Amino acid sequence: MLRVEGLHSGYGRIEALHGIDLDVAAGEIVALIGANGAGKTTLLGTLCGSPRATKGRVLLDGADITRLPTHRIARMGLAHCPEGRHIFPRMSVLENLQMGAAFGDPRHFAGDLERVLALFPRLGERLHQRGGTLSGGEQQMLAIGRALMSRPRLLLLDEPSLGLAPLVVRQIFELVARINRDEKMTVFLVEQNAFHALKLAHRAHVMVNGRITLSGSGADLLSNREIRAHYLEGGAA
User: Is position 82 within any domain?
Assistant: First the structure.
């Protein structure tokens, strides 16, 4: 579904990605782990058109989306749930979900809303509550639900566990697994919590300083001694 070929990107004269190659097949959960500053968030942003790639290509179902504007990429079925959630705090839960459906067909709104609220019943209980008054976990549910309202074929998740209590983190990852299993949603997950990410993912990559340094199945990387030392046992990558 997604293929990244020799991708370079950055900010001004600072290059953050140095020739990234990876792919995500339909129905997979693929994880990308790495330390702060490795370039993970930059990669997700580049897939969505901001920042722009300076070299290389991004293909979605064989179509080159590298130079397309972000709104056209969204209409092609790619949804981005950003780091830090970035919900609209003064808007209600319902209004946030309506914003997520902005690029969709209005005829599907009622059905899509019902589907999202079935996945996240807590949002249904707070439908007319302002987003900024929700707990951190509820805001993360809202951010994911907002992304799902656009009917994506590929969901990009950036640090969904950020700032959440361990119990809530487990709940969020269980929800991601459920979306993948029941909705057949393809997921590309960027995450610092290597244990949960690798346990969830079918395949995974490790990014260091803007380069992919190791790839394999989630289970293989979870048992890899070097990965365990750097990311699972308190070491620094």
Answer: no
Rounded to a whole number of angstroms, the distance between the first and last alpha carbons of the chain is 30
pTM for this prediction:
0.92
Together in a domain, 165 and 135 = no
| pLDDT band for position 232 (cuts 50, 70, 90) | confident
- By residue range, what is the domain housing residue 180? 2-77+152-232
Q: How confident is the model over 210-219, as pLDDT tens digits?
A: 999 999 999 9
Which DSSP helix (H) or strand (E) runs through 223? helix 218-223
**Phi, psi values for residue 101, rounded to 5°:** -90, 5
For 12-37, what is each residue's pLDDT tens digit?
999 999 999 999 999 999 999 998 88
Q: Is the dihedral of CA 212, 213, 219, 222 positive or negative?
A: negative
Q: Which one, of 46, 48, 113, 105, lies nearest residue 74 by Cα?
A: 48
